[in-house]
Design brief:
single chain; 203 residues; alpha/beta; 4-stranded mixed β-sheet; 3-stranded mixed β-sheet; globular
Length: 203
């Protein structure tokens, strides 16, 4: 297992990221001693995470191999278009435009704009200015899961946190949110195939 040390000027805290190999991102002035101590402290976690990541990637690759020439779309396998990424982005834009309008009206809120992004770890986000961002890979999941992401971010327009009022509102507008969250947690690596990014930070 290879560990690559990457020093960055603007980084304030170290973090470990596991992809095809292990990356240790450190502030520029962090000493070799502290880096080695951190790696030693989390050695068992690193080995376990790297092994799990490798196993998951193989399993998901096998699923894709069994569905050669197809891609997942809203939980189903469909024929792959010529430009898969562009297809996902256009599909996501249409879907999120439609459902954000529906849930905004249902919740009585307004949003500034909707942006479809190519993110490696996040499904969606809501800014303090009311801008909604969604990962195009979300349309790989069943439609109710993608719809949940809309409800989640729309709820943030009223409550920009994960407090009790947020979860109460989310439950009102999307009662099956727990089922959708469970799917996202368990199927995360299938959605982020070749873009998976497990990480550990020092808080």
């Amino acid at each position: 297992m290879q560990i690559e040390i990457v020093r960055k000027n603007r980084l304030k805290r170290w973090r470990i990221v596991i992809k095809d190999k292990v990356y240790f991102y450190a502030p520029r002035k962090m000493s070799d001693l502290l880096i080695n101590n951190a790696i030693a402290q989390y050695e068992s976690w690193i080995k376990k995470s790297f092994s799990e990541r490798d196993k998951i990637v193989r399993e998901v690759e096998n699923i894709y191999a069994q569905n050669s020439g197809k891609i997942p779309l809203f939980g189903e396998w469909v024929s792959a278009p010529e430009n898969v990424k562009e297809f996902y982005k256009l599909t996501a834009q249409k879907f999120f435009n439609e459902f954000c309008e529906i849930y905004a009206e249902k919740t009585g809120v307004k949003y500034a704009k909707i942006t479809i992004k190519d993110q490696k770890t996040r499904y969606g986000s809501c800014s303090v200015k009311g801008s909604l961002n969604f990962n195009f890979r979300a349309v790989k999941a069943p439609k109710y899961v993608a719809e949940y992401l809309v409800a989640h971010e729309i709820a943030h327009l009223k409550h920009l946190n994960h407090g009790k009022n947020f979860w109460r509102l989310l439950s009102d507008i999307f009662p099956q949110y727990k089922e959708a969250e469970s799917y996202l947690k368990n199927k995360r690596n299938a959605l982020f195939l070749r873009y998976d990014n497990f990480g550990k930070k020092n808080d």
